[in-house]
Write a structure and sequence with these properties.
It is built from five helices and twelve strands. The protein is an alpha+beta fold. Strands 1, 2, 3, 4, 5, 6, 7, 8, 9, 10, 11 and 12 form a twelve-stranded mixed β-sheet that branches. The radius of gyration is 23 Å and the shape is elongated. Residues about 1-5 and about 30-35 have low confidence and may be disordered.
Length: about 325
């Protein structure tokens, strides 16, 4: 298991800080009628800034919106993430023009949820239970060029831009839970971050037809983003950061017959993903491998430029992370 701290384990350290603050600030309640709630709130803010938790939360939105990292269920001893993603890509290159440079477009819509439950113990004088829940919504678009290099290889530089929204809530149980809930409003409870994404990437794609109507697809891609907050529920969450993803994919597909006059093909693939930058520490893992397969249905008669629909699934294997993916894609 990877021992690097994640955004969510950082949240756990934040919860432990709250427990320590509670042990110092709340005992005087026995002989006093007031608690310095602003002192608690300022202490939480200071710790958030020290841990750069805002950047960690933004990682969740970026991770859910990039076409480089597959939507999936990721789970470890500390966190569970569910992701749902619809990637759409299209090259405007004419199939009969193997040497021409053509525009290229991609859109990725993403939705992710994450949660963690932390038991602290009431003996500290603080809360004995903290549950964190997060949701992220993202839309990322890319425009670039499809540049052929030889007969089977192309390079795609892409400019990327988009928007993410992250909502989060924390629930406390045990001593002083209500007070902690009230004093952390907008920070740990009812949290919200809206951000712009801006960046770019480069993709190298190699496609080759093999005997028996087999097709080989090789792809390598690197993307880098800047996350620029536009609206936050508390100033302590405002943090501009950068995020990088590198992906290498190998796919082999072949004919499987016909389905209602449509061509049906099987797919086998493996995909390696590496997270580059500070999000390695926030998510708790920095690399993982996907191995899986699927089906592709060629459906040019659907119109709207849709030439095929793919459905695929895979197992996730990584140090500090495990899970599975299920993906739906459209080819234009």
């Amino acid at each position: 298991m990877d021992e690097r701290p994640s955004a969510f384990s950082a949240f756990r350290r934040q919860a432990l800080l709250l427990a320590g603050l509670a042990s110092l600030l709340f005992p005087p309640l026995a002989g006093a009628q007031q608690v310095d709630t602003q002192a608690i709130r300022d202490a939480v803010r200071d710790q958030l800034k020290a841990e750069d938790i805002g950047h960690g939360f933004e990682t969740l939105g970026v991770f859910g919106g990039t076409p480089d990292a597959s939507a999936a269920r990721y789970s470890s001893n500390e966190i569970t993430l569910h992701g749902y993603k619809l990637p759409i890509t299209h090259s405007f290159r004419d199939k009969d023009d193997a040497d021409g440079v053509a525009p290229y477009l991609e859109v990725t819509l993403g939705y992710e949820t994450a949660w963690q439950q932390t038991g602290l113990g009431a003996d500290t004088g603080g809360p004995d239970l903290v549950r964190e829940n997060y949701k992220s919504y993202s839309a990322l678009g890319g425009f670039g060029l499809d540049i052929p290099v030889g007969t089977s290889t192309s390079i795609r530089p892409v400019a990327l831009g988009g928007y993410t929204r992250i909502r989060g809530s924390g629930e406390f149980a045990g001593p002083n839970a209500d007070l902690l809930h009230d004093t952390t409003g907008g920070i740990l409870t009812s949290m919200r971050i809206d951000s712009f994404l801006a960046g770019g990437g480069v993709e190298v794609l190699h496609e080759r037809t093999l005997p028996d109507d087999l097709r080989l697809h090789l792809m390598g891609r690197f993307s880098e983003f800047a996350d620029i907050p536009s609206r936050v529920s508390d100033p302590s969450l405002k943090s501009t950061g950068s995020f990088g993803f590198a992906t290498v994919n190998a796919q082999l597909d072949g004919p499987l017959g016909h389905l209602f006059a449509d061509d049906l093909r099987w797919i086998a693939f493996s995909r390696g993903n590496i997270l580059i930058g500070s999000q390695q520490a926030f998510l708790g893992f920095d690399k993982f491998l996907e191995v899986g397969g699927g089906l592709e249905v060629m459906t040019p008669h659907l119109g709207y430029g849709v030439e095929g629909v793919t459905l695929r699934g895979s197992a996730i294997i990584g140090n500090g992370v495990r899970g599975w993916t299920v993906g739906l894609g459209l080819a234009f």
